[in-house]
Each structure stands twice: as structure tokens, then as C-alpha cells.
Amino acid sequence: MKFTEIKLFAPATIANIACGFDVMGCCLESVGDTMVIRKTDDKGIRIKAITGGSLPFEPEKNVAGVAIMAMLSDLKREPDFGFELEINKKIKPGSGIGSSAASAAGAVFGANELMGRPYNRHELVKFAAEGERAACGSPIADNVAPALLGGFTLVQSADPIKILELPSISGLYATVIHPQIEIKTSLSRDILPQQVALKDAVKQWANVGALVHALHENDSALFAESLQDHIVEPHRSKLIPRFDEVKKKAIEAGALGGGISGSGPSIFTFSKTLQIAEKVANTIEKIYDETTIPFHLYVSRINETGVKILSIK
Amino acid sequence: MKFTEIKLFAPATIANIACGFDVMGCCLESVGDTMVIRKTDDKGIRIKAITGGSLPFEPEKNVAGVAIMAMLSDLKREPDFGFELEINKKIKPGSGIGSSAASAAGAVFGANELMGRPYNRHELVKFAAEGERAACGSPIADNVAPALLGGFTLVQSADPIKILELPSISGLYATVIHPQIEIKTSLSRDILPQQVALKDAVKQWANVGALVHALHENDSALFAESLQDHIVEPHRSKLIPRFDEVKKKAIEAGALGGGISGSGPSIFTFSKTLQIAEKVANTIEKIYDETTIPFHLYVSRINETGVKILSIK
Q1: What is the ipTM metric for this complex?
Q2: Percent of the residues in chain A that have a pLDDT greater than 70, as a whole number
Q3: pLDDT of A185 over the 80 cut
Q4: Beta carbons of A141 and A129 less than 8 angstroms apart
């Protein structure tokens, strides 16, 4: 059976999970964009509609277009049809929860389905990462990997891209606040130290090892202990209003831990149950209600599968 | 039943497993010291005999004595007897495969058994680490943990000491060469960089995550890929003659990977089978036969249980 149109859910993702800076991410269940991808008789890529965000319509400037182009140029033989995209952004660009990654991951996933699935989900990661190049300047995989594969992922190698799929803590929920402030990417990058103390790096990789072990053992207490970042968070958290208070009070309310999602400004926390995750959300809401900063607040299960097909015909 | 004498095997250990510098170690099956610990009517600790090495007989200067003293001082009530130790060193001090750790681990393990086991193996780690303080100047746990617990261990936290027990790759063998050269501890320490590039640290913790995942998945190919050290090995390997050649040719002979054990000069490699481990040993032997440096060469299974009781009466 040949399909001509696919509608899908392209999930938001948390990257830079505490000690796993630049390597660990996870996928959200109930936060994400929807996209429609349609075969067209004309070859090439056309972005027909974008709602919910102001993004370029030129395929070569849009992460979704760039990602599909990267995939097409890898094929031995290009398909004899083109693609038309409708993108409904729910994830705000610049939020730190993988807005561009969702577009890139959804685009390559959908186009791959319409072509009869020449690639598996792992193979799609590198094309989606090329889409990220359009948004971030480099083909980073730490958001597109969980967006495509679901659950928790580890970027074992960035060049060439190699991704490991990790197990999840069962029943885990994330509470994420996106304070609507703009942090310039250049500032967020420049604030990072180029050099770090060896003793801090040792602590960080001990925690990464403990975090991976905790996921395999489904050990939420160890997971909580290992959610520490001695290297990046102390610098970047200065750019996020009330960060320390949000994290501290979230943990007091029962969260296992948290940190900065991506390069911010979103703050993520993890909780063992929906009930705790909602209590954490209330706690965080109160803190941000005291400011004049508008914000979005999300409570979501971890999405174990990544991009999802909503309908296909 | 009350016991009065225990004879045990105190294993050698590999610490600083590649990317897991300062945190990951593993225990060897067929390399280690033997110790006899005996109850005495007189209180206190007496070291009656030391064979195979020139080490202090004063308990407060000997790692075995210091470790037992640390344990005794933690007890609510000291036992109404003392301990007499005979230590037969097979692991040469300064070899980098946990000579002092074996003495410390064996001592606390044996004394604990004779006292009716007031502590479990995990609790013994901190006392054995206190023994290490006598040898190394600080209470490090990366050798005593695998010596007491067996298999692969991760020092999740050095202060307070918290150890995680990791699964092993099934059927794994280690080939270890101990070139009998002296590397001054101060030189081995001073050659380490105090600061490391963030991008190298990221690579290192990606590999630590991959290594822990590989152990859980029993994935020897991934285990091999993750046995990399971008931070310490480039510096310390300069102190070990023919290091690069040994590692390269060992891998060509079938080893999964390797590195510097502890702070050297021993070089470890891992192989999937005994046959490969022996081939690797032959390869390494040939390289060192070309030098004038005397050496010991070991092939050993991974020891899954740590210190072993040989006899108790």
C-alpha cells in the first residue's frame, strides 16, 4: 500500500540532562508539534503552512526542509515525487525543549514513511541532526535522538553520530517550565567555561555512570542522586530568573531533581508519579507568578517511542 | 560457631579503567595475595610475617593494620581479643594493580569474619579505604571497592564513599603486564593536567555512560568502543615504555581495548575469551622481550566476588 499523506506528533525533548551535558536527553509525551507531510507530483520540498511560530518558508532555511534534503541527498535514487509540509508549532523556538529538533525529526520521519521507509529510526538521526545545523550552526544530535527514538538517549559519539537507547525509570514524569525570556545563543555559549577542573570532571562522569546504572536498575533514588551538574549549571543558571529557588522548592515538593533543559531558559524536573509532578508544577507556578515573566508550564510522561503517527492515508 | 583463624585470597584489581579515571575498577581472579588472620588473646594488632615484599610491620604504618584499626574504632564495643596477621604478597607494591588495596581489603574482610561479621562488604569499603590512606595519602576507594565487592565497580561518590556494583561482560579475561620500573607517585600525579578542555570532558563522560550501558547489555563491541581515555592516558602513557605499541598490538591480536592500570606502570587489556587473552599475552611478551625491562605478565578472568575465603577454622 502506498501512502500519500501522514500526520504526526513531533515531540519536545529535554537535552543536557544534568551531568549528561551534551550527551543525554529524553523525550516528552504530551508536549510537541503536529505536522502534516504530503506527497506532491512536483519534486522538491514546499512548506505550505506554518502556524504557531514565525519560521522561514524557504526549505533550505527551515530545519524541516534542510533535514529532508539531507536525507534525499543520501538516497541512491531520489523519489519521483516531492513533499509538502504543514507545521503546527506548539513548542516555542528558543525554549530549550527541542523546538527545531521536533521539526527536523518529524520531517525526516514523515518523509521516510511516505517513501516506504528506506531508513530505520537510528539512521534518521543524522539527517535530523543536519536540520539542526540550520538552527544551531552544527549538526547536534542530543535533541533529535530522543525525538526520534523516544525514552532516554546517550550520544555516545557526536562525529560520527552514534546514539545509545537507554531504559527509563518506570512511570517517570517531567515538569518543565519555559519562562518566556530570550537568552541569546551566543551568550549561553560564551558563558560556558572552555576548561574545567579535572576533579569536577571526575565527579561529573561518576554521576553519568551512576545515572546510566540507575536507569538500567530502575532505581529512582540513585537517579535522583546522580542528577547533578557541577560544570555547566553553575554558569548557565545565572541567566534564568529564580532558577535556584525553582530547583530547590521542586525537590522539596518531591521532585527527584532537575536542571536546565538544552541551553535554557526552560527548567526541567523529574518526578516519580503524576501526582508529584503536578505538585511540583504548582510549586513552580507560584514562584513564577511572583515575577512579571510570562511562562508555559508542562507536565508530561516520558515518551518511550519518539515521533508518533497520528494518521496516515 | 566461633572461628579463630581465616586464610584468604586478596585479589589484585585494575583501577582507572580507561574513561572511568578515578571511578571505575574491576577485580582479578587469579592474581592476588594470600593472608592469614588469627585471633589472639592479647588485644591489638600484630603483623607476624610478611613474605614477598618489604613492608612495615608496625600496624599503624601498614595498610592492613590501619584498615583494621579504622574498623575497630567504628565499632561501638571493641572485641575482647586481638588480631595476628601473616601477609604473603604476590602483588608487587607500586605495580598499579592494587597491592596496598589487596592488603587493606583482605585485612578488614578477615577481621570482620572473625568478629562474627558486624559489617557487610559495602560497609567494609570505607575502612579499607582508610588503609589506602597509609599507602597513598588519601582514602581512595577505586581499588578497595572491586577488591571487596568483585566484578566492576563505580565510585559514585568519593566523599562520602558510595560504591555501585556493575554487571560484567560475561566470560571476560584481562591480560596485564607489570613492567618492573618505578614511577614516582609524585611524578605520576604531577603529570596530570589540573584543567581539561570541556569538549574532551564531554567525550569522556559519553564514554563512561557507554561503558556502563555496555556492561548492562553485555555488549562487548560497545564495551570495546567505550574503552577510551582522552584525558589521562595521553599524559601518563609517556611514563610507560612501549605503551602505545603494547596497546595497539594487543588490539590487533584481538583485545577489546586497554589502558593504564591505576597510576601505572601496569598496562591492562580485556579480551572476550581465554584464548584471545593468551594470544594478547604472547604479543605483549614479545614486545617487552625486546627491552631490558623485567616484567610480570598475568592472564586472569574477572573475579565476580572479591576477597575469597580459602579456609576458616
Answers
A1: 0.95
A2: 100
A3: no
A4: yes
What's the mean pLDDT in A139-161? 95
Report which DSSP code applies to A160.
Answer: T
Q: pLDDT band at A136, cuts 50/70/90?
A: confident
Q: What is the pLDDT of residue B139?
A: 83
Distance between start and end Cα atoms, chain A: 9
Of B156, B195, B206, the CB nearest to A210: B156
DSSP assignment letter at A234? H
User: Percent of chain A scored above 90 by pLDDT?
Assistant: 91
Q: Does B75 touch chain A (CB under 8 A)?
A: no
pLDDT at B1: 58
Nearest 5°: the CA angle A270, A298, A241 is 80
B58 is catalytic: no
Structural contact between residues A85 and A103, judged by C-beta atoms closer than 8 angstroms = no
Q: What is the pLDDT of residues A255-283, one digit of tens each?
A: 999 999 999 999 999 999 999 999 999 99
Q: Distance (Å) from the C-alpha of residue B22 to the closest C-alpha of chain A?
A: 7
**Residue B46 and residue B58 in contact, taking contact as beta carbons nearer than 8 Å:** no
Output the pTM of the full model: 0.96
> Residue B175 in contact with residue B281, Cβ under 8 Å?
yes
List Cβ neighbours of B130 (8 Å cut-off, separation of 6 or more). B66, B67, B70, B104, B139
CATH of A173-301, one of 3.90.550.10, 3.30.70.890, 2.60.40.2470, 3.50.30.10: 3.30.70.890
Q: Domain B5-166+303-312 adopts which CATH fold? A: Ribosomal Protein S5; domain 2 (3.30.230)
Candidate list A4, A185, A273, A291, residue with the active-site label: A185
End-to-end CA distance of chain B: 10
B123 as an active site residue: the answer is: no
pLDDT score, position A1: 59
**Which DSSP symbol is given to A303?**
P
Q: How far apart are CA B77 and CA B64, in angstroms?
A: 20
**Catalytic: which of B29, B132, B233, B283?**
B132
Nearest-CA neighbor of A114 among A169, A48, A179, A38?
A38
- Domain residue limits, chain B: 5-166+303-312, 173-301
In A, residues 204-223, which contact B (CB 8 Å cutoff)?
A: 204-213, 216, 222
The string of pLDDT tens digits covering residues A25-54 is: 999 999 999 999 999 999 999 999 999 989
- Distance of alpha carbon A59 from alpha carbon A68, whole angstroms: 9
Distances in Å between the alpha carbon of A170 and those of A216, A223, B46? 10, 12, 52
